[in-house]
Amino acid sequence: MKKNILITGTSQGIGQAIKKELENNEFNCLTPTREELDISDPKSIEDFFSNLKVEIDGLVNNAGINILGNLDSVSNTDINSMVNTNLIAPLKLIQFVSKNMKLKRYGKIVNISSIWGVRSKEFRTLYSMTKFGINGITKSLAKELGEYNILINSIAPGYVNTEMTQKNVSLAEQNKIKETIPLRRFAEPEEIAKLVLFLVSKNNSYITGEIITIDGGFLA
After folding, report:
1. Which of 39, 45, 172, 175 is the most buried (most CB within 10 A)?
2. Is 127 a catalytic residue?
3. pLDDT tens sequence across 77-127
4. Of 43, 93, 103, 42, whose CA–CA distance to 63 is shortest?
5. CATH number of the domain that residue 195 is part of
6. Contact between residue 83 and residue 130 where contact means Cβ atoms under 8 Å apart
7. Catalytically annotated residue among 106, 127, 148, 159
8. Running DSSP on this structure, what letter comes out for residue 143?
9. Cα-based distances in Å from 131 to 4, 126, 163
10. Considering the entire predicted model, what is its pTM?
């Protein structure tokens, strides 16, 4: 039987590539719309799982937001939005899916983090706070869930050639950034997706609690 993988944030970019890669490799992907699952709303998450008719074998926490700004510009609204979407929602989803995974003694969980959850830079205080946090969740739960054969890892992408990158970063700035990357290019979303595929597949039987950087050597 095909494994059922719940993926958040699949409308474009990395999430869309993950969905396509997993479906091409005989996984059944659950990709709820915002109306079906609003991850910023704990009640929506609870309702989604209450109405779910299939067992979840794997979870990919991909959805997230990035609000940039200096310290003085940080508002309570920004803090709440970032923490709720990037940190609390993934934790709640793991909490729900892990219940049945424990009973089956099987599960694969992948959290999409960021290089800014390994290292940081100016104006990314909130983003780094949540991405360092999701990495902490990954490590703690690898300890807690390991006895149930539930493997959980984080992937920390560097610069990726997505629609959002093309929209928010000028071509001149992109070229400047590429000069700081040993491979002299951005990752393609499909390259991130292939790593996700490995981590949720049967080929991964012993990797858990890891923060796997995929950045073309940027942090080296």
Report:
1. 39
2. yes
3. 999 999 999 999 999 999 999 999 999 999 999 999 999 999 999 999 999
4. 93
5. 3.40.50.720
6. yes
7. 127
8. H
9. 26, 9, 21
10. 0.97
214 and 181 in contact (C-beta within 8 Å)?
no
**How far are the Cα atoms of 22, 112, 170 from residue 29, in angstroms, in the given order?**
7, 16, 34
182 CB contacts (<8 Å, ≥6 apart)? 216, 217, 218, 220
Strand order in the sheet with 107-112: 28-30, 4-7, 58-61, 107-112, 150-157, 211-214
Does residue 10 lie within any of the structural domains? Answer: yes
**Strand 58-61 vs strand 28-30: parallel, antiparallel, or unpaired?**
unpaired
Task: Name every residue whose Cβ is closer than 8 Å to that of residue 68 and which is 6 or more positions away in sequence.
Answer: 123, 124, 127
What number of CA atoms fall less than 13 Å from residue 194's CA on the CB side? Answer: 6
Q: What is the pLDDT of residues 136-191, one digit of tens each?
A: 999 999 999 999 999 999 999 999 999 988 988 899 999 999 999 999 999 999 99
Residue 183 covered by a domain: no
Q: How many domains does the chain have?
A: 1
CB-based contact 94:109 (threshold 8 Å): yes
Amino acid identity, position 110: V
With respect to residue 38, please indicate whether it lies within any of the assigned structural domains: yes
CA angle 218, 115, 191 (to 5 degrees): 75
Within a domain: 181:
no
Host domain of residue 77: 4-162+189-214
pLDDT in tens, 199-209: 999 999 999 99
